Amino acid sequence: MLNSSSTTVKNLPLKRRLCFLLKLVCFVSSVLIFCEFLIYFVVIFQCRWPDVKGGAHMSEKETSASVLKAIILADTHLLGEIKGHWLDKLRREWQMERSFQTALWLLQPDIVFILGDVFDEGKWSSPQAWADDVRRFQKMFKHSTFTELVVIAGNHDIGFHYEMTAYKVNRFEKVFNFTSGKLITRKGINFVLVNSVAMEGDGCAVCRTSEAKLVALSHKLNCSQQKHSHSKKRCSDVEKLPASEPILLQHYPLYRKSDAECTGEDSAPPEEKNIPFKEKYDVLSQEASQKLLWWFQPRLILSGHTHSACEVLHAGKIPEISVPSFSWRNRNNPSFIMGSITPTDFSLQKCFLPFESRVFTIYCAAGALLVILVLAHVQLLTPPFYFAQHLISKHKAV
């Protein structure tokens, strides 16, 4: 009996240590699960699809049939083998994968548009590196058959104009089924996909082909809308499309002097707003911008490239929304656009992802608490209760 009692006493500290260790493991696991998984549900769950005119009075079945739910994001910049550190890749790609998959699960969009610069090094990647980048992209942005994914070419995917080659363009088109001047019509809504890198206006082979397709598509759309400038004779042999005014989707924004007029928490930083934009590099040229506006007279333009948000009006009536980057690598507060769209109207709402700084703060606070708990457990740090008790007893003794 005495031996048994002695063994029990000896095992108490060991059991206490194991119990404390188990608590620490549970604490660390809880923080990791929240910061790397649950936080995306907590944040994106707060996002709501915007209502369009008449949408609030429709039944759920009518809304589902007539309103297209679209998610628009831009500039994912998946890192490549040359400039991408493995840890940076792991962190940024996990953030985008969890954000995208959580958004699909919670919001269930009909279609997702990615407005270019899917890859960071597509402009110079080897065939093997390109295949690896594509494989990672398909894993991160996998989706069900109920959601369509449409990807636009950006300058980092096929190169700036002086780097762009037919090989790079064809490689991108083969993977993403993208061509400039392609029309996508869903629920009577016309979306025009533009390769804005090819809007250089210098008559290069890719530019000529791209512009010819855009002009032909413009003619079809204008005939379908029965524009006065298009006579019945000129439109007699043209395939009729839905009469809805188109929405332009492209990587480069249309020409604007700078981001000086842009507002909002995810617009460009104050020190960058007044920096003049360079035509054909930061934005399209004035000539190319006027061409697109004249050819299509769109009701909405969606673009990326600048990594910051901006809303501008062209010709005093045509809105353009520059979509900020979807990656923490480019900004602390990435986001995407949620659009409820009908053939005659649209409504847009921004959905922010978790702020990187907030996640970092949670980790720092958890780390500090973990250190305090460990020090208190090994009695290197006097618990506050015993410290206060010691001070009271000392005071009474005096």
Q: How would you describe this structure to a colleague?
A:
The chain crosses the membrane at residues 20-43, 360-387. It is found in: Endoplasmic reticulum-Golgi intermediate compartment membrane. Pfam families: Metallophos. This is Metallophosphoesterase 1. The chain is an alpha/beta fold and 398 residues long. It has a single domain, classed as Purple Acid Phosphatase, chain A, domain 2. The protein contains twelve helices and eleven strands. It has a six-stranded mixed sheet with strand order 4-5-6-7-9-8, with helices on one face. Helix 1 (2-44) packs across helix 3 and helix 1 runs antiparallel to helix 11. The protein starts with a helix and ends with a helix. The model has no long low-confidence stretch (mean pLDDT 88).
Structure keywords:
alpha/beta; metal ion binding; membrane; about 400 residues; Purple Acid Phosphatase, chain A, domain 2; elongated; five-stranded mixed β-sheet; about 15% strand; six-stranded mixed β-sheet; Metallophosphoesterase 1
